[in-house]
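Anyone up for a design puzzle?
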């Protein structure tokens, strides 16, 4: 029996799964963030070690655990320099005598990739297709049967992230203030933000956004205000949702045009908080995309990214 580890490391959490060579998940652990670009290398190592340790503790295995392959899908890993950093982390893991693991890794059984690829593999079940991630930020990533990949977006909240919760929230607040000024038609977004944030006046958004030093995640968390207004029939809010859909469809279409043929039969998996709203953004996106590419099937994830990492690791010992 062969055992592998799949690790999903992001800006908010680190998830590790232990699998055997029949794809059975034997253990799972979850801890804090492991994006070394934001928290540093040492803190990232500690998170990954803790995730592995917690995973092994949940598994019922009588003998010393022998790990034959590992995949780390980490946020912020895209350049050759990033991969070298992660290789160093893996060496540190193997040198850690406190982890109850017998490492038998060969270079060919170590997979280091970005978190978009493991989200694709976990969501679809194979490394072919497209993942459209729309949460706090947004990115579209695809891989075809020949192994060619294409990424669109992922440029961050200042330079990109169209269709993300952050951009929806910003557009909602911007439009509410324009409506308050008289520059935009009447919208329930004014009352929506007032109630959600317990404001006496919409003018108090100034204090919330500028003086409380809110970051990207806090602002992105306001996207449900726009989603709820759109679901309630507000025309202004629906226009914002429609714009988000157009951006996500455009990004996905760009990936399809780049690495697939127009009549390709493929699955597009949607991940992230934006897709779970009440305004039917997911259905709007699917209908618009399928109208352009009739053979595309838009789905929700079949499994989590960490499981996708496990499948990629397993592939190295079964190929």
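Challenge accepted. My sequence:
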């Amino acid at each position: 029996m062969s055992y592998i580890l799949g690790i999903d490391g992001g800006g908010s959490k680190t998830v590790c799964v232990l699998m055997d060579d029949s794809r059975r998940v034997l253990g799972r652990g979850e801890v804090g963030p492991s994006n070394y670009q934001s928290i540093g290398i040492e803190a990232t190592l500690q998170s990954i070690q803790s995730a592995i340790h917690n995973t092994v503790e949940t598994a019922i295995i009588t003998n010393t655990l022998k790990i034959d392959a590992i995949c780390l899908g980490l946020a912020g890993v895209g350049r050759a320099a990033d991969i070298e950093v992660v290789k160093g982390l893996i060496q540190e893991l193997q040198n850690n005598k406190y982890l109850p693991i017998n490492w038998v890794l060969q270079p060919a059984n170590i997979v280091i990739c970005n978190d978009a690829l493991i989200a694709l593999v976990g969501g679809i079940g194979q490394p072919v297709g497209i993942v459209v991630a729309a949460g706090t930020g947004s990115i579209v990533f695809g891989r075809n049967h020949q192994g060619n990949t294409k990424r669109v977006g992922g440029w961050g909240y200042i330079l990109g992230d169209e269709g993300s919760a952050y951009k929806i929230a910003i557009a909602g607040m911007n439009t509410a203030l324009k409506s308050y000024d008289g520059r935009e038609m009447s919208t329930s977004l004014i009352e929506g933000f007032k109630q959600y944030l317990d404001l006496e006046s919409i003018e108090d958004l100034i204090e919330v956004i500028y003086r409380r030093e809110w970051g990207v995640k806090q602002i992105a968390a306001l996207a449900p205000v726009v989603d709820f207004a759109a679901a309630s029939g507000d025309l202004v809010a629906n226009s914002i949702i429609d714009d988000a859909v157009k951006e996500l469809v455009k990004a996905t279409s760009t990936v399809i045009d780049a690495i697939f043929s127009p009549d390709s039969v493929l699955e597009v998996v949607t991940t992230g908080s934006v897709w779970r709203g009440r305004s039917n953004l997911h259905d709007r996106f699917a209908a618009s995309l399928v109208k352009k590419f009739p053979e595309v099937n838009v789905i929700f994830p079949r499994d989590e990214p960490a499981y996708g990492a496990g499948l990629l690791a397993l592939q190295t010992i079964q190929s």
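A detail worth pointing out: The radius of gyration is 21 Å.
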